[in-house]
Amino acid sequence: MTGRVLVVDDIEANLRLLAARLAADYFEVTTAANGTEALRAMETSAFDVVLLDVLMPDIDGFEVCRRIKASPRTSQVPVVLITALQHQSDRVRGLEAGADDFISKPVDDIELVVRVRNLIRMKRTMDELRMRARTGQDLSLQATESELAGPLSGACVFIIDNDPGSMEFIKRGLQDGYEVKCETRPGRALYRCVEEDPDLVIVNGAMEGMDPLRLCSQMRSNDHMRMIPILLVASRNDRRQILKAMEIGVNDFVETPLDPSEFTLRCRNQIRYKRTSDGLLRAMQETIEMAATDALTGLYNRRYFEHHASAHIAKAIAEGKHLSLLLIDVDHFKQINDRYGHDIGDAVLVEFARRLRRNVRGLDLVCRYGGEEFVIVTPETNHDKAQYVAERLRSEIAGAPFIVPATDEALEITASIGVSTLQLSDETTGSLLKRADLGLYSAKNEGRNQVRVRLIDPQDHLE
């Protein structure tokens, strides 16, 4: 996986070395000689990752990172601090500034490429979720991204370790407010992670009698666990394990002995990533549902009907099965609106939809077609059964009065229904709707509160 990388360092030799190494792996590299140039480049170009030296003369790397993360335009771009500073306090300061990762000088070529690829993979996953959820946000139908993430308190953290002593040590390093769960058996851990969907999984890289990286690989290959962050607790001296872990998709690592401040911040960053991705997924699903659902009644809307009715018809034709369509209209609905107002008219439609939904099968497609018209597609139903269903619906509508909210006045509501059924191998949604509409027209003309089935008549010239 390649991408666009901004490399920032005030020493030209370092810039050339980093740029050459990344270009050799087909990354597109832009360089900046100081913090001011870097911030200017961030405002004018789009990057997938920023590699940022900490010690620079004009603006240090901590401040550049802070400004990148503070800008709405660039806050989602991963920042890697490249530093010769060895104190844990400097790493904590970087994390507090918003840095996503660190690389120590001298830079290991393999580590550099692995970390950059891992961060690009994560960013593109999140970018895809943001893009899909953006429609609802643009329409002010959803919360902002920070609101979607919500508070981090109460996050579920799962520790996988078969050494009770080290497990307890890791557990003590977590801040208060997390729900911490522990598991010693790898197979059981996978099952529980799928069932409980934790916000973070911490894996001890020094477990005896098993391969921790194989466990991490199994987690990443499971569809239900791909978005769960994995934090590896690794030995400072085992660089091979750390690099391999990053290659297979482990999100981050901490080295032993654990620094409490760094451990807390890294856990918090990964939990925020999970909470944000979960929020974006929910927002995306809500956007899909809003696009397919009638806001008033909660039924599917006309757009959804037109797409899915065709699929139902094609399936019925291919399998040689029956299918019928019911077109339903609320009788005298205009008079209800004129007399009681649109609020009462809306309440009638909501109750009307509720009665329809309550009296059909789960496999039937019930939609609000528009205004006071509703449509139902009934798979595996011939015209006799469809007529029976329509009569039951008509009776359910007329059998009990609709109570007007606030006044408790009872309204007698009836419905007229036209029915058509699949008869030819080249039928379409349009042909079924047209016959059902003719049936509905007959029901209206003949006094309303009736059901009329319309079968193919050569004189209709439907096709």
TrEMBL record:
Q: Which residues carry this modification: 4-aspartylphosphate?
A: 53
The chemistry this enzyme catalyses reads: 2 GTP = 3',3'-c-di-GMP + 2 diphosphate
Domain GGDEF: from-to ranges: 321-456
A cellular component term, taken from the record's GO annotations: plasma membrane
Q: Where is each Response regulatory domain found?
A: 4-120, 156-271
Q: What's an example Gene Ontology biological process for this entry? A: phosphorelay signal transduction system
Report whether Membrane shows up as a keyword of the record: no
Which molecular-function annotations from GO does this UniProt entry contain?
A: diguanylate cyclase activity
Which controlled-vocabulary keywords does the entry list?
Phosphoprotein
SMART domains cross-referenced by the UniProt entry:
GGDEF (SM00267), REC (SM00448)
Q: Which SUPFAM superfamilies match?
A: CheY-like (SSF52172), Nucleotide cyclase (SSF55073)
tRNA processing: present as a keyword of the record?
A: no
- Pfam families attached here? GGDEF, Response_reg
What EC number(s) has UniProt assigned to this enzyme? Answer: 2.7.7.65
Q: Which domain of life is it from?
A: Bacteria
Q: Which PROSITE patterns match?
A: GGDEF, RESPONSE_REGULATORY
Q: What is this protein called?
A: diguanylate cyclase
Lineage in the entry? Bacteria, Pseudomonadati, Pseudomonadota, Alphaproteobacteria, Hyphomicrobiales
